[in-house]
Request: fold
Amino acid sequence: MFEYEFMVNAFEAETIVAIAASLVGYFLVLRGQTFAGHALSHVGFAGATGAVLMGVSPLLGLLAATVLAGAGMGFLGERFQHRDVAIGIVLAMSLGCGLLFLHFFTAYAAQATALLFGNVLGVEAPTVLALLGLGVVTVAGLAVISRPLLFATLQPELAEAKGVSLRGVSVLFLVIVALATAASVQIVGILLVFTLMIAPAAAAQRVTIRLWPGLLLSVVLALVEAWFGLTLAFYTDWPTSFWITALGAAFYVLALIGRRGAPVHRHEHVHEHTHAHGHERHVRKQGASASPGLDKPERMPPLVEEMSAQARSLSSQNHEH
Amino acid sequence: MEALAFSDVTLELADRIILSRVSFSIEEGEFVGLLGPNGAGKTTLLRALLGLVPATTGRIRVFSGAAAGADEAIGYMPQTRSSNVGLRLSGWDFVACAAKGQRFGLPLLDRALRFDVDRAIALVDAAGLARRPLVELSGGERQRLLLAQALLGKPRLLLLDEPLLSLDLNHQKSIVSLVSELNRELGLTVLFSAHEINPLVGAIDRVLYLGNRQAAIGTVDEVITSAVLSRLYGTDIDVVRLQARVFVMAGAFEIERDEHRHDV
Ligand SMILES: Nc1ncnc2c1ncn2[C@@H]1O[C@H](COP(=O)(O)OP(=O)(O)OP(=O)(O)O)[C@@H](O)[C@H]1O
Ligand SMILES: [Mg+2]
Reply:
C-alpha cells in the first residue's frame, strides 16, 4: 500500500499526531481534564468553519480558536475546568456556531465531514509538514513543563509553596493541549479527537501505575491504533477514523478486562507489605484488597457513552439539513 | 538557636484580619503543636511561614531570613488532600513528583533524587505503600506518603497541617510517634497543627494556640488553662483533666471535640 503517495502521507501524519496526542492525553487523564480537552476540539470546529467563511485556511482558524480557548480556560482556573456543565455549554455553543457558519457556506459539505470526522487519506505533503511543526512544538513544550506540571497536578499546594505558578502551568498546558487537538483534528476530526488523545492514555494507566512506562505505553498504543487503523481502512475501504475509534475502545476494554483477570499479577508485590507500627502490624490480604477503587467511576465520561452522545448530536444535525 | 519567629505580625486574607499583632518564637529542635478552633488561622499561619501570605504588619523570620526564602529548609504537608487526580499512579511516583518538582524539564530523577525519595519513604515506613496505586490506599496510608513528601530534600523545619485528620486513634498515635521520632533523631523543628490536644500531649514540647486573632504559646500546662483559653475563645472556658486526658469545655460542651465533629 505504500506505493500510493496518499498512504505514505497518511502514515507520516498519523505517526506524528499519535505521538503528540497520546503524550498530551496522558497528562489530561492524570489531571482529570479529559472533558475540558474534548471541549477544546469543539471550539475548534467554530474556528475552522469561521475561517472558511472568511476565506482563511481552516487549520489557522482551528488553531486560533483552540489556543485562545485553551488559554482562556487556563486563566479561569481549576474551578472552571471541573465545571462540566459550563464546559458542556461552551462545547454545544461552539458546535452551534460552526453549524451556522456552514449554513452560510453550503458548498463546503465535504469539508464539514472532513472536519467532523477527519480525512487522513486526503492529507497532502504541506499538511504533513505543518503537522510535523505542530507535533514538535507540542512535544517540546510538554517536555519543558512536564515536571512542574506533574507536581502541580498531584500536589498543587506543595507545588505552590515551592514556587510553581499553578495558573501559569495550567495555561501553558492547555495551550499545548490546544495544539495537539488542532493536529489531531486533521486525522480523526473534531468529534473523535477524544479517541486518539484519551483512549491510549486511559488504557495505559489501567495497565501500569508507573509514570514512564505509562507514558511509553500510551505512545505505543496510540501508534498501533493509528497504523493498524490505516492499514485496516486500506484493505476494507471503511473510514480510517472508524478503525481508530474501534481499536481505541478495544484497547481500553482489554486493559480493563486484563487488569481484572490478573489480580495475582497486580498484587504480586503486596504479599510482603506490612505496616511496621507495632499494634497495627498486619499483612494485607491480596484477594480481599482487589480494590473497591477499581470500579470507581472516573471523571472521564466512558468512551461508549461519549460516542453515542456524539452520534445523537450528529443525527440531529442531519435533520436540519 | 531560633528556628522561626513572628514579631508583631498581622495576617489578612481578603481584607479580613486573621491574626492581629502576634509575636512568638520557636527554637530549633522544638516540637510545637499548633491548635485552635476552625478558622482560627492555623493554615494561614503555616502558609505565611512559606511566604504565601504576606504579613501586613511586623516581620516573619525563618532561620533568620525572610519567610519566602526558606523553601529549601522547609518540609510542608498541606491540609487539603486533593483529590481525584493521579490516582492510578504508584505511591512512589506520587512522592517523587515533589522531588525538585518545581524545576522545568522532564520528570526524570537523577540518582541522588531517587535515593532521596527512597530515603523519605523508608523514614515513614511506606516502602510497601509506594508500590501500590494511590487509588487503593486508605486515607491514613496516603497521609504517610504525604509525610514522606514533606521529608524530601532534608528539611530542617517541618510544617505539618492537620496530619491527624480523619485518622482513627491508632493511626493518630503512630503518626505522632513517627513525627516525634523524626524530631528527636533528626533534630527537626516541627510545627504540627491539630484539632485536639490529647493525641499530642506527652509528645510536644510546647503548644501554640490560636483564637480570636491572637496567639498564646507555652507548655501544655501553661496554655491549656481556663484563663488563657477563655481569652482565645472569647467566652468562658473550663479545662477539665481526667487521668492523662484534657477536656476543653464551654458550659456542658466539650468544644475541642464537638466543633470538629464534622471532620470525623
Ligand atoms: N482565600 C481566602 N480568602 C478569604 N478568607 C479566607 C481565605 N482562606 C481562608 N480564609 C478565612 O481565613 C480564616 C482562617 O482560615 P484557616 O484556613 O487559616 O483556618 P484554620 O485554623 O486552618 O481552620 P481549620 O481548622 O478549619 O483548618 C477562616 O475564617 C477562613 O474563612
Ligand atoms: Mg486549616
